[in-house]
Structure formats: C-alpha cells, structure tokens
Amino acid sequence: MINHIEFEEPEVTVIGAGLTGLTTAYWLKRKGISVHIVERDNRIGGQIQTQHNNHYTYETGPTTGAVSTPEVAELMMDLAQTSDNVCRLETAPDAAKRRLIWKGDRFRELPAGLLGAVTTPLFRFSDKLRILGEPWRKRGENADETIGALAARRLGQSFVDYAVDPFISGVYAGNPDTLVTRYALPKLYALERDYGSFVRGAIAKHKQPKSDRDRLATKKVFSAHGGLSHIPEAEANYIGMEHISLGVSEVRVSQEQGAWLTSYKDAEGRDCQLKSRWVVTTCGAYSLPDVLPFVDKERMQAIASLEYAPVMEVNVGMPDTFGGDYCAFGGLVPTKERQEILGILFPSACFEQRAPKGGALFSFFMGGIKHPEMLDKSDEEVKRIVTRCLHTMLKFPASAKPDFIHISRHRRAIPQYTATCGQRFEAVKSIQEQFSGLLIGGNLRDGIGMGHRITQATDIANHIFNTIKK
Ligand SMILES: Cc1cc2nc3c(=O)[nH]c(=O)nc-3n(C[C@H](O)[C@H](O)[C@H](O)COP(=O)(O)OP(=O)(O)OC[C@H]3O[C@@H](n4cnc5c(N)ncnc54)[C@H](O)[C@@H]3O)c2cc1C
How far is the CA of 34 from the centre of ligand 1 (A)? Predict the structure, then answer.
C-alpha cells in the first residue's frame, strides 16, 4: 500500500541530506518555499561527521573548509542567527597558516613569498629561475591540459613534485597527471587563459575593485565552533526534522501529469510517495541510475562513470606534545617521497577545543586515487603505520602514546574531475533542459569542497525561488 504522504505536499523534494541538500533546503525554507528531504542514511550530514572522545573533538570527513565565496560567509552568518549562535563560524588563526611539505627526513615549510621561494630546498635551482620567468612564458594551447602538464610547462617539474602533487593529494586525493585544470582548478586555468600568466593574473585580480560582498570571501580556513556537524544540525533544525525522512531506501523519481513523484520505502519499509513541482538530486553520481531511471542510458552513463578517490582518515589524539611545534595547517607528502600516507592535518592548531590542554589532535590521510589498496589494510596495520609516522615524521619520542586512534574509510570520497567532465556536464545540462523542474546537484559538478557545495546549493535555491516568483 502506498503511504500517501503523511506530511504536506512540498514544492521541492531534495534527495540527500548532506551539505548540498540541507543547504538547498535551508535557503528554500528561508524564502518561504516548502521542501522535503529524503535521505538514505539514518543520520543527516552526509560526509560531514564530527565525533567526540573525552576531551577531543575530531572530524571523520571534511576537516576544514575555505571561505572561498560570499555564499559561505552569508550562510554562516544566517545560521548563527537562526540557531541562536549555536552554529557559528570559527576561522583558523594566522599562526596556523603554515603548510609543510615532507622532503627527505623532515617536514619543510612551503614558501609563501618570493624570498622563501628562492631559498627553499624544496625546488631545484633551475626551476626557481623558471618560476621567475613565469610571467613571460607563452600560453598553452590544449584546453584539456592536466594540472601536472600545465604546472610543469609554466613552473618546472620540481614545483610539480613538491608543491602541486602534494596539494592535489591534499585536496583531491588525486593525480595531477589525470585531473584536467579547467575542471579541477578552473580559477587557475582562467588566470593563464585570461592574463597569459599566473603571476600577472594574480596581480591583476588583486588590483580589481571589490564590492563589500566580494570581501566576505576572505579565503580563510574555517570550521564551525565545536565541529562541522553544527552546520548540518543547525540547517536541519531550521528545516524541521518532520520535513526530513531518514533511513529511506529504493528512492525513484518519475513524472506524473506535470508533477514529479518521488517514491521510496521509509525506515519502516513502508511505500511512500512525495509529489512536488521540483526535484533536486544531491547524491553521488553512482546513485543516479537508480534514482532517475527514465534518463536514457547514454547520458546517464556519462554521469555515472564518474570516478571517486577512496580516502582513509585516521584521527589520533596525543595527550602531550612533548614540546613539538605543531602550529601549522598540516603537512603533505609528495608521491616522490614514497611514504604510506598522503598527509597529516593539525586541527588543534587551527581550532579551539579539539584536544585537551597540552595535547594535540592529528588527522592522517591515506589511500587516494594512487593507493586505493591502503583502504584494505587491517585496523591493526593502519594503527602500526600511523604510530610509525608519529615517531618518524612528527618526531614524537618513543615513549609517547596516543589517547586514541580512530579510523574511517571512505570508499567514494572525492570525485575526480578528469577529461570525462565535459561529457558529464553536457549530460546534466541537457537532462535539466529536457525535464523541467529536475535539477541535478551535488559534487558531480561545480566543485568538490564544502565551499563549492554551499555555493551550488545557494544557486539552486535562488534559481527555484526566482522561477517560482516569475
Ligand atoms: C574524507 C573526506 C575529507 C574531505 N575533506 C574536505 C575538506 O577538508 N574540505 C572540504 O571543503 N571538503 C572536504 N571533503 C569534501 C566534502 O566533504 C564534500 O564537499 C561535502 O561534504 C559533500 O556534500 P554533499 O551534500 O554534496 O554530498 P554528501 O555529503 O555525500 O551527501 C549526499 C547525501 O546523499 C545521500 N544519498 C546517496 N544516495 C542516496 C539515495 N539514493 N537516496 C537518498 N539519499 C541518498 C547520502 O547518504 C548522503 O547523505 C572531504 C570529503 C571526504 C570524504
């Protein structure tokens, strides 16, 4: 029997209660548009999940975001208001800006200025000279050039090996030789395309007048006070849990007389249906063939073939730093250095109350597109690797023992924006054009970070609001 909606018919049905789905629904409700979310998991937040262990607070998914667009700052300001300050922005202090790169037997600081770039042991002398000549190097001609090829051409191979490769591991858990610049780092791509050089482009951009709204995008590293989960929690509280169905299965969308029908089994296994004017999907590309069965195979294949990098995140609480200097954003490990980890973040240097006084929290990352096999290691083996790295890389004395080690495995963590993006974006565009009222969101397009997710969700909510208003 179909359990014909125990809740009001929404104008919009959102599939997925991660950051994209919840932010879309939050802004829709703020604009007076009724919305219902269906979520497969028994909890909200998707990849965002903050955990607490004694006096430690750690993230098992994303650890930090960047205030990369005004939309991020605006959401956080609005959430502070609607949650009575329970959810509020926390930005990392300048002291935690340092980025470290592993080379040889220790972490070294990634240079932030010209003097540091000339004196650093990370890059070859010939490449330092090459970096100085970057403004005069000629434009590339291949629109689908990979990040690795672009950086090698403009900056030199040692810059690729010791800056670009670890950066790409840290952001994409990916490979700079397969990620295509115009999709994966569109702002960097635009600098060369529009200004002929990264340096000239960055200077020109810096000189451009900025509105007060532009200035909200401070680029600062952020979290929420007390952990990232406060963001989805505050959004869900505002939306109202009665408008979010958790633990659903067999979600299928179909059309009926100009309306969208979303059918699913609720947490008790009962058949349910939601009728709405709009449907917004925010789930991973791999879920879409089941969710949107009416889309032809060819276009769906262009979307569902998106590859995701697997990532293992291991949080380690240390009760004592033994005088070590861990005041940095974290350290990344270039592929060339052949270590078992991709990098280590230092969340307790960035945010308050992540570790007890005198102690520190570290988040180790392993796997990625280059080493998916790392996720198959047993917990005991992972703990051995992390403990070894604590001593050899972070230089903890042999006597130092962690308070806890927590392992989380994400088999489909980060979508890889490779050469297949063009076909996928085209497929999404033509499906949305053909099926009015259906919007395909999520990290299969428009960027992989939390800032991108918030920006996309805001755009989707504005689009629906503006269309309804007409
Ligand atoms: C280990 C890790 C580390 C990361 N680190 C960072 C970082 O430091 N900074 C940063 O900015 N970003 C980081 N990210 C990326 C960031 O987590 C994502 O950009 C963001 O959380 C994605 O939100 P989303 O809502 O688009 O997707 P998700 O969080 O994946 O949410 C999608 C939701 O859809 C649900 N769903 C799927 N299929 C269905 C279905 N058929 N029916 C109903 N519901 C369904 C899922 O259960 C899920 O809740 C990281 C990601 C991972 C995995």
Answer: 24
